[in-house]
Amino acid sequence: MQILEVAPRDGLQNESTQLSTDDKVELVARAVSAGARRVEVTSFVHPKAVPQLADAEDVMARVERVEGVRYAGLVMNERGLDRAVAAGVDEVDIVVVASDTFCQRNQNMTTWQACDVAAGLVSRARDAGLFTTVTIGASFGCPFEGDVPVARLREVVLRVVDARPDELALADTIGVAVPSDIIDRAGCAIEVAGPQIGSRLHLHDTRNTAIANAVAALEVGVETLDASIGGAGGCPFAPNATGNVATEDLAYLFGRMGVDTGLDLDSLIDSAVWLEERLGKELPSALARAGGFPPA
Amino acid sequence: MQILEVAPRDGLQNESTQLSTDDKVELVARAVSAGARRVEVTSFVHPKAVPQLADAEDVMARVERVEGVRYAGLVMNERGLDRAVAAGVDEVDIVVVASDTFCQRNQNMTTWQACDVAAGLVSRARDAGLFTTVTIGASFGCPFEGDVPVARLREVVLRVVDARPDELALADTIGVAVPSDIIDRAGCAIEVAGPQIGSRLHLHDTRNTAIANAVAALEVGVETLDASIGGAGGCPFAPNATGNVATEDLAYLFGRMGVDTGLDLDSLIDSAVWLEERLGKELPSALARAGGFPPA
């Protein structure tokens, strides 16, 4: 199972404490050193929208590139894509949201409008030689509309697949999915997308289901899971709850199950503790509290 | 899936804050009111060993019995069994530990000696008309010896099964199991025990795997899972870590998967918050933080 490390982007973008550019560069280096082969480094959105990532170009310029690692940036529009290309990313992550209400609030357009924008961005990014991945937010439930029907999600997947991205991801943005949802919805996406388009899941542990969902993802054939060192990055719709699943929690799970992730658990735990110090708060990581087993 | 509520015993026995007898009686009533049909009410061990549960007889005497609910007590020896019978429990939980080192520290005897003691207790409790359940501690790993081989666990299961208890449980006492372990070990126990002996699992969420393990338990045919309101009850071998899996987290999981537990999620969340107030601390429950989905 491949892990895409998202702490530098999704992990930091909602934090009240802003990390220095130096610390962000170190966080990326730590992820790579722990075995990550894909890292979402930053977001090329307007600095006013996400001031935490206003130094996107600086971070990309100072990251020491390691061969075999893909460095990614999130883009929402043409301007963001221009910046990402200029900054030298290897891949771009493009977002649409499965429910109209949430999509309007997130990017000020309907889901179908967002799919059209995404198609244009995929086409241009592909022409620029970049790997393209499209994430469908709220694929398992919407904080405003509640349940998102599978039939609706299937329609959104069909529209996204039309643009032929290299990869398609479903995001459990508010952490409501259970394993049967993963089987149904990731299974649907994989079937609709076909073998030419990679499959990825973005899981949140808000309701303690992310690790169970990761096991279901493995069973249904998902290739890549997003994860965040320390579990950094909360759930904006459940302010006191856990957000992104912790990379080290996934590393423990898959390690003990004999599933290769290429990740080093002790190195991840060390980085989770380092990130807690930098952010000045405890992160939700279970493994940073409990340690691995059996002890080294 | 049947849930055995263990907050009144396992949830409270390591807490520094001692609940009043009134509060313990209320906790049991809350569990039953939320749908629990088995509750581990208390422990009949020496009050010096577990001062938190020194009022075992008082709690049992004051619990208002509801038809169809079984009220259980933990017993370690003959004296404890006498007290449990006198107190009017419906079932007794008897413990052995799969590794000798841990068994010596827990009950001052080897695993085989503990199996002999358990056999005597099962026989006497059965004669007294009680339901008997034996829990094998450290079935998935030992804090002192590390990995516990499946072959060793199988031997312990064989010895316990010889005593013909009504039910046999494997406990992940230190929270190290992953789903493949559940399939292997609970599968082994179910096969060795045969259809006449019920199967139960005691899961800890120390390394964030309890919910995934609960799904594996469902797949392999485990009938009953222990859980604790709020996730009360830490892991004594990982002091800062999460312990018992939270009842409401399991209720959310199974509820969204369409698996009947008879539990009411909102009632459990309400009781988790009540227990946090009584203990004066935040408990690990994810659902108490995030709330159910879709919102009521």
Roughly how many Å apart are the termini of chain A? 24 Å
Strand % of chain A is: 5-15%
How are the strands of the biggest sheet of chain A laid out side by side?
1-2-3-4-5-6-7-8
What is the number of strand segments of chain A? 8
Biggest sheet character of chain A: 8 strands, parallel, barrel
H and E order of chain A:
EHHEHEHEHHEHEHEHEHHH
Number of helical segments with 4 or more residues of chain A: 12
Q: What does the average pLDDT of chain A come to?
A: 96
Number of domains of chain A: 1
Percent helix among the residues of chain A?
A: 40-55%
CATH class of chain A: Alpha Beta
Judged by helices, strands and strand pairing, the structural class of chain A is: alpha/beta
Spans of chain A of at least 5 consecutive residues whose pLDDT stays below 50 are: none
- CATH H-level superfamily of chain A: Aldolase class I
Please name the CATH architecture of chain A.
Alpha-Beta Barrel
Biggest interchain interface, per-side counts: A-B, 40 and 40 residues
| CATH fold group of chain A | TIM Barrel
Family (chains A, B): Belongs to the HMG-CoA lyase family.
Protein name (chains A, B): Hydroxymethylglutaryl-CoA lyase
Keywords (chains A, B): Lyase, Metal-binding
InterPro entries (chains A, B): Aldolase_TIM, HMGL, PYR_CT
